[in-house]
Amino acid sequence: MRHKCRKQCSHRTLHCDLPRNVLDEILMCLPFRDVVRTSILSKKWRNIWHGLPVLTLSHTLWKPEEDLADLTSNLVKIINHILIFHTGPVTKNDIQHLVLRLPIRGGLYKMPLSFFTCFELRHLTLQNCSILAQPSFKGFDRLISLELRDVAISSKLLERLISCSLLLEQLVLQISGASSNVIEISAPNLRSFDYTGNIRSLSLSHREYYVGAGKCNIAKFFESFSALELLHLNDMFFVAGAGEVPTRLSYDLYCVKHLCISSIYLSDLNEVSCALCLIRSFPNLQSMEIKVECDDNDIPALESLEVERFSDVTFNHLREVKLMQTNGTIPEIQLMKLLLAKSPELMKIIIEPCVVEESATVKILTEIIQFQRASTKAEVVYKLDKHPNPGPL
Question: Which residues form the F-box domain (predicted)?
Fold first, then answer.
C-alpha cells in the first residue's frame, strides 16, 4: 500500500508540479517513439506529446535499418499522421544536416513546404527530388555545402538557393538542366565546385560564361573562382567556340590545390590548350586527376605537350597525379614525360590503363622508365585490374 502511494505521489509530482516548459524539455530529450508511448501512462498523459514544440523524427520510425533503400514508402503518410494529432505549433526547427538520397519509384519526391523553413541548414544533399519555387523563400543563409543530384528545380530557384547562401563553400550540381538553362549565381566563398550537366549559360559573380554559344571567355570565368580549392570539370566541352586559348591566365589562382578533369580529348587542341592553361595558372596545385580520351597519335595538340614549351613553368607543389583510361598513345606518353620533368615535389603518378595486352604494357613501361624526373622520390605506379601490379618504376 505504501509502495502504491509512493508511485502515485511520484506520478502526480512529475505531471502536475513541473512547469509545462520543463516537462517539454524532458520529453524532447527522448526518442520520438518513446515520447508517443507516454500517452498510455494515464488519461492526463494521453495528449502531452501533441503540444511539443520540437519533433525529432528518425528513419527508424518507419523502416528498419536494413530497408533504408525503401524508407520513403511510408514517410509522407507517417509525418502527415503525426501532424494531424499535433495541436501546438512547431516553434523550433534546428535541422543542420539533411541528406535525402531517394530511389526513383513513381517519379521524383516532391519536397514539402516545411523544407523551406529549415533555416538552420548547414549541409544539404538531395537526390531524385523535385523542388517547387516559393515566392517567400529567401534562401538558407547558413548553408555551407550543397549537393543536388537529379533534382528538378527551376533556374530562378537554383539561383536564389545558391546566391542567398553567402557562406557556401562546397557546391555539387549534377543536373541535366533547369528551365531556360541559364543560371546566374553568386558564391564569393566557393572553395569546391563539382558540376555535371548541360546548362547552356552559367554566370558566377555577375561574370557571364557561355557554353557552346561562341562567347566563352575563359579568363573572365575562372576569375570568379578566387577562393576555390578544388575544381572538378566533368569534361572540357565548354572551350568549344572560345576562340584562341591563352597560354596561361593573366592572374594566378593560388587557392586551387586539386584539379579533376573527368574527360579530356588529347586529340582536341582547344581542350589540351585549356587544360594546360589552367595547370600553368594554379601555382599551388597539389594533386591532379585526369581521364584521357585519345583516338589518334598524329594530332595537332602534340606540340603543346612538349617539355620545351614549359621552360618558364615548374609545378612546385604537385605531389600526386592520376591518369585514367590511358592506352599508350603518343600524347599520353608526352603528358607523363612533361609532368615527371617539371614536378620537383612529385611523389607518385598512378596510371590506370585501358589496355591489357602484355606487349602494349611492356612498351609503355619501357618508355616511361627512361624519362627524366625532377623529383628523386617520384614513382610511377602502373595499375592493371586483371594482372598483378608490376610495382613502382
Answer: 12-65
